[in-house]
Amino acid sequence: MSVDSRAVVDPEARLADDVTVGPFSVIGPGVEIESGTWIGPHVVINGPTRIGRDNRIFQFASIGEIPQDKKFAGEETHLDIGDRNTIREYVTINRGTAQGGGVTRVGSDNWFMAYIHIAHDCVVGDHTILANGASLAGHVNIEDHAILGGFTLVHQFCTIGSHAFCGMGSAVSKDVLPYVMISGAPARTHGLNAEGLKRHGFSGATIKALRRAYKTIFRSGLTKEQAIEALEAMCAETPEVATLVAFLHKSERGIVR
Fold this sequence. Notes:
Layout: E1 2-3, E2 8-9, E3 14-15, E4 20-21, E5 26-27, E6 31-33, E7 38-39, E8 44-45, E9 49-51, E10 56-57, E11 62-65, E12 78-81, E13 86-87, E14 92-94, E15 103-106, E16 111-112, E17 117-118, E18 123-124, E19 129-130, E20 135-136, E21 141-142, E22 147-148, E23 153-154, E24 159-160, E25 165-166, E26 171-172, E27 180-183, E28 188-192, H1 194-199, H2 204-218, H3 224-235, H4 239-250
Parallel strand pairs: 1-4, 2-5, 3-6, 4-7, 5-8, 6-9, 7-10, 8-11, 9-12, 10-13, 11-14, 12-15, 13-16, 14-17, 15-18, 16-19, 17-20, 18-21, 19-22, 20-23, 21-24, 22-25, 23-26, 25-27
Antiparallel strand pairs: 27-28
Helix pairs in contact: 2-3, 3-4
C-alpha cells in the first residue's frame, strides 16, 4: 500500500495492499477499497463505502458523503462502487437514504468527467459516460452504455435507458427509452442513436428493426398501449425490441417524446 505521509487514513478503513492514496486525501472509517485503485490528492472518501478494483479517483472528488436530503437523520446508509471506473475532478457521489433502499450503486467501467453529481439512491450501470457538469437527482437509474452530455440534468426517479444518448444541456424530467437520442430543455427525442449502436456492434438488421420500432412509438400516433401491442410482434425476431417493450411496461413517469 502506498499512502502519502500527508494523507489521513482512518484505522477502521480497509485498503488493499496495492492501493495508492495521494497527499492530503482523507479516507474515513467504514471505507473499503480493493486492489489496484488509485486515489489522487485532496480526495475525501467517507463510509460506509465500498470501492472495487482498479478505479482512478482524481483530486477534489467527494465520495460517500451523506445524502443531500432533509429526511436523512444520520442512519447508516451505503455507497457501492464497482471496478475500473474513472472519477475525475470535483465529482460528488452521495450515499443512499433509508427511504430509497439505503444504497447508492455505481457499476464498472464508467467514465465520470469533472463536476458531475450522483445523488442519493441512484443506480448507475456499466460502461456509461457522464460528461462535465452532468447531475443526477435522487433515485435516478442510468442503464448500461448510456451517455449524458455536458450539463445534462436528470430529475429524480427518472430512468435513462441503455445505449441512450442525451445531448449537452438536456433537462430530463421523464424516462428516456433505450437506444434513442434526446436533447433540449425540456428534452425531446431526436431519432435513434444509430451511430452509437454501430460502434457497439449492433447489426444493420437490428438497427433497421429499431428504426421501425422508433417510428411505431413516436411517429405513428398510437397510444403507449397500442404501440406496445404493435411492437410485440417484432420481439421474437429482434430481442432489442423486447427491451423497448419491457421498458415501456415498467415506465411510471412516461417517456421523453
